[in-house]
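Observation: inputs received (chain + zinc ion).
Thought: call the complex predictor directly.
Action: predict_structure
Action Input:
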Amino acid sequence: MKNEQAQMTGLGTIEISPCEMPRAGEGEVVVKPLYVGICGSDVHFFQYGKIGKKVIDRPFVLGHECSAAVVETGPGVRGLHVGDRVAIEPGVPCGQCWYCRNGKYNLCPDMQFISSPPYDGCFRRYLRYPERMIHKLTDNISDIGGAMIEPLAVGLHAAKTGRVALGKNVVILGAGPIGIMAMLACRAMGAAKIFITDLIDSRLRRARGLGADYALNPQECDVPGIVLEETDGMGAQAVLETAGNPKTVQQAGALAARGGHIVLVGNVTEPVELDLMGLMVKEADIRPIYRYRNMFPIAIKALDSGQISLEGVDPGIFEFEQIQEAFDYTVNHAEQVMKTLVKIGA
Ligand SMILES: [Zn+2]
Ligand SMILES: [Zn+2]
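Observation:
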């Protein structure tokens, strides 16, 4: 077995090179990535070399949306066996701190999140990883589906944080990959009417095809007017902002029902002016989320049972050798691409 890695060696450049074959240590397994998705954060690093304070300053391996097969188990590994198909949960928390011990491990200050510097990611043929952050797939979940569990986990965490439940109306701002995953999560959790908005019509068409009740372009219609009219003047009990845009954050308050929850999912990198009085009289709250926690097992059960289906998502697929093209394509076709996957060991 020979290992290879795809390193980002400069802005917009990814090169494949040989690298050391990992060995599984105590509590670890070696896996062979099958499909690895290109995340919005990967694209951002690829184009700009940094996200906020996280800077890539050496050849670096991106990729954290990964289905894989176990090829070696280390001492002390009990739950996994060679040949198991798995999904990798990309953050490895310390397991010891207050946050970890209270179930909020996504807030662990010592989180080692792969594909976020300095922790190399999954675009490689073999990878060593702790068993405790690996989740077994069932036969009902495809290798491709397994690579989309990570973004689905974000959507589930968003829907749960917005307390989406049977009979509640939901507005999702942004119909990109995360907006779509949030929509699938909301549907599965029983949402009544789902409104989704975007400026790009092809995304809205896709959202409609995947089950949105209303897919609205704010340049072409009065979104708050339609939401109010279709919700008996109440607005939505949950508003999920996935666009990461200051404007949509500002609009969220007007879309929320009294007592509603506004969930900030997209990365909002600039300060935003808010009508707080508008939120106060509604007693609407704003709930930012950071990645997800405890969601992989739920995503896997929902995919296994068919309560959530990724069938219609239809990702674009590139071979490992074409990873440069895969990134270029994703950058140049940002409007059309729902998800690009790199096929590695499948
Ligand atoms: Zn991701
Ligand atoms: Zn911790």
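Thought: report the result.
Final Answer: The chain has a mean pLDDT of 97. The CA atoms of residues 267 and 327 lie 21 Å apart.
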